[in-house]
């Protein structure tokens, strides 16, 4: 993949991950009771695995160490920033208000769309389907990698359902 393409992929993924992380941070900040504990556990697992994916994306993009550190720091602070925002608006927030539902729905659609694009186009197309290193592996190894991909996707979906 061309160098500019890798950099564009990381920027798109960074934007989607940052927006998504702020949204789930706000969701956690306005949540109370037993729901808070379930959501916190799901977010911890989700952010851990998303962080690994993000770190791998940064690593293969061949950006400088300074830029890699900056992008990882931005990712690391977005959920806590969203959490702080959620706590700040908790007293005035109504999760059943039309405005809150519209804002949350539109934000989730944008973030989800970007993350789906990144996963399907950047990961599936450029890292698997057209990647000569991947295609050069044995059939058994590729099948094992496909199984790992779908198993990971299923686990992330299960975590999302749990939250």
Automatic annotation (TrEMBL):
Keywords: Membrane, Transmembrane, Transmembrane helix. GO terms for cellular component: membrane. It is a multi-pass membrane protein. The chain crosses the membrane at residues 7-26, 38-60, 72-89, 101-123, 143-162. The keyword Transmembrane applies. The keyword Metal-binding does not apply. It is found in: Membrane. InterPro entries: ZIP. This is Zinc/iron permease.
């Amino acid at each position: 993949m061309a160098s500019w393409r890798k950099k564009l992929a990381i920027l798109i993924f960074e934007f989607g991950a940052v927006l998504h992380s702020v949204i789930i941070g706000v969701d956690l900040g306005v949540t109370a009771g037993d729901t808070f504990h379930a959501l916190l556990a799901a977010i911890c697992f989700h952010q851990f695995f998303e962080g690994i994916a993000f770190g791998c994306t940064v690593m293969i993009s061949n950006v400088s160490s300074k830029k890699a550190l900056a992008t990882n720091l931005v990712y690391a602070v977005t959920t806590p920033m969203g959490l702080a925002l959620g706590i700040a608006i908790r007293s005035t927030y109504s999760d059943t208000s039309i405005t809150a539902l519209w804002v949350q729905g539109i934000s989730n659609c944008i973030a989800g769309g970007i993350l789906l694009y990144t996963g399907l186009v950047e990961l599936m197309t450029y890292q698997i389907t057209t990647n000569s290193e991947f295609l050069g592996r044995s059939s058994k190894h590729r099948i094992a990698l496909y199984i790992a991909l779908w198993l990971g996707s299923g686990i992330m979906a299960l975590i999302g359902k749990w939250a």
